Amino acid sequence: MALSNNIIAILNFLALLCSIPIIASGIWLATQEDSACVRLLRWSAIVLGILILLVALAGFAGAYWNHRCLLASYLICMAALIVLLLAFLVFAFVVTSPDGGYAVPGRAYREYRLSGFSDWLRQYIADDDRWAQIRACLSQSDVCGKLSREKATADRFFQSDLSPLQSGCCKPPTVCGFGYVNPTVWVNAVNPNADPDCLAWSNDQTQLCYGCNACKAGLIGNLRGEWRKANIAFIIAAVVLIWVYIIGCSALKNAQTEELFRRYKQGFT
């Protein structure tokens, strides 16, 4: 039993380590520039990582002190958390699979179409009441302010690596044919009816393209990119946790079998 308990304790230490990238990814997601305006699953990863940390500590303690009830509780809770982590991963993968971005000739940055993203994300972000709050938040943020302070020439700006949020909210769509003055000031649209967003554009620095569908699409593009980066850490953690859990269950089962066999032999001596 001592050997099996040592194995389970070591495995739970690995599970404890797995919680660190999950918590770190959650903190990273919560500190991104769009997180202040969109509280979508903002703390879910952090809470999930902390729960895995606490359960792993409980399993470590149960193995170290050979506490059967604590070990049983650990196995049940860790199984539930692994299922929850897998469900979170599947959900994040499904809603972030479609990519609404497209290349624009002569531009290094991409632009974004709202129709190119998943229905769930599109409906969540484009909800009128929710978008009104997000729009007000974005207009008060420094997302476009960073661009407005740049003194870039047109050629240099067109070769800039804009974030999806900056591409969608801080400038008009390229198809409108606006003339470049600076990153957040554009004039004299050649094709003002090419896209409804062309008429929504304003050089008022508190308005810009915050009322555009392109801005909603850019925000979703930002969220998509962040989630897909965080998913790498979640996938690695999920694989290690499943591996740890299976080996832990096997070690505990073998220990129980050995204990029953030992008692059975003692009954005949």
From TrEMBL:
It holds the Pfam family Tetraspanin. One of its GO terms (biological process) is auxin-activated signaling pathway. Keywords: Membrane, Transmembrane, Transmembrane helix. It is found in: Membrane. GO terms for cellular component: membrane. The keyword Transmembrane helix applies. The keyword Disulfide bond does not apply. It is a multi-pass membrane protein. The chain crosses the membrane at residues 6-31, 43-65, 71-95, 230-248. Belongs to the tetraspanin (TM4SF) family. This is Tetraspanin-2. It comes from Apostasia shenzhenica.
